[in-house]
Every structure is written in C-alpha cells, then in structure tokens.
Design goal:
mainly alpha; 106 residues; 4 helices
C-alpha cells in the first residue's frame, strides 16, 4: 500500500512540477537571460524524464493535462528560442529545441 501511495505521489508530483514550471515560465520567462534559459531547459528535461517514468500509469485525463502543460511550456520556450537565447546555450540548447519541435510538431 505504501509503495502504491509513493508511486502515485511521484507521478502526481511530476504533474505538479510541470504545472508549477508552466506558471513560472508564464510569469517570468520574458525576463530570462541565457543563463536563466539554461536552468529552465535543464529543469524541463528533468521533469520530462520523471513524467516518462510513469507514462503508462497516467489516465487519459492526466495525459491530456500533461500535453496541455507541455504545450504551454514549449510555447514559452519557443519564444526564448525565437529571441536567440538557445543559440547561446551549451549542450542543453539542442535538446530543448528538439523537445520544442516534437511538441509543436515542427
């Protein structure tokens, strides 16, 4: 029982982290410099990895929420990419650009 609750908390925690991250980007990303974008990119990748560990545990409703939140994050990050910030980043820039392209279907 404790294992199930821990697993549920972790999978729900990942959704909560993604939701918080989306709000963070919405409220602050327009002020980000290259260093902030690098931190944000690493955070997004970490959240995505946590979510993917539970990918088969999510309900259709949870998957829809994750997709919406990822789309929101991708939109904010695409604005950062459009402004040239990801060109200044080290290795994380290419990974984030790939994620954005995958989510936005471009």
């Amino acid at each position: 029982m404790a294992l199930m609750l821990g697993s549920c908390a972790t999978k729900q925690g990942a959704i909560s982290q993604l939701e918080d991250f989306s709000v963070e980007l919405r409220d602050h990303s327009r002020y980000y410099d290259a260093q902030d974008w690098e931190k944000a990119g690493k955070k997004f990748v970490k959240i995505r990895k946590t979510i993917s560990k539970h990918e088969f545990d999510y309900t259709a409703e949870e998957k829809a929420k994750i997709g919406r939140l990822e789309g929101d994050c991708a939109r904010y990050m695409a604005n950062g990419a459009k402004n040239g910030f990801f060109d200044k980043l080290n290795s994380i820039g290419a990974e984030i650009q790939g994620i954005i392209q995958g989510i936005l279907g471009i």
